[in-house]
Please model this.
Amino acid sequence: MSSGITSDTGIRPADARADGSPGSLAALEAAVARLTGAALALRDDTGPWAVSRREEAADRAVDLLAARAWRALPAASHGNAEVAARRCVCYLLARDTALAAGCRDTDPARAHRLAAHALLLLTLAEHFDAATFRTRELLGPAPEGRLLAAWRMVDEALERLSTTRHEWVGAEPGVVAAAGWVLVDRVGRLLTGAALVAQAAGRNRTAEHPDATAELLVNAARRYAWNHLRGPAPEAATPTHVRRSLELLCALAPGGKGAP
Model:
């Protein structure tokens, strides 16, 4: 049985010694290289712990492939979506790098800052709409074969997002920031997921016969969409939610006097 990323595909993660700041593709490459190396050392172990370790590594590997697919696109091709998309993808890279490194985030404050920077743009109609339009543009017409499942998941997630647009666009950032990372994550996953679907579709069209890389990209697109885009549309927080969060913090704060 194939272990996933093999030498004949030519798409191994970069050298694990590669350096890069959080939020960079180089940092994700390095983290995934270390994780996949450790997981493949257990390829002959059929125990539940080893299997779960390989599954986790495979999930991070498809995150990397989606990030690569996005970065392979010329920045100029994104048009009006480029600024918001760059901020959303930067957040994804930092989050996925932390997951691949075995922790949620080594600097939680940085993740919040990255999400806030992207959210400030997504509350503006021109940036929200440009990002969703770019997703639709990348997704293109429905493909044939097994890639169709990935296309449908991205397409359906995009349609669901439109149902909560009114909650985000024009909203007060200081309120919707309570759930803003969910929107930033969803928009980033839509863009990168659509890029991966487009890359897989392009590989299938140009290859005279499907090869190992083409099949791997199809599998990666299906897995990425399944992992990240099946949930409900991201809903914005309300002032009441924000107030109740503060009450919880005050009630549980060490040495505090309880909720205001």
Summary: DSSP finds eleven helices and no strands in the chain. The first helix runs from residue 25 to 40. Residues 47 and 97 are 26 Å apart (CA to CA). Residues 1-7 have pLDDT under 50 and may be disordered.
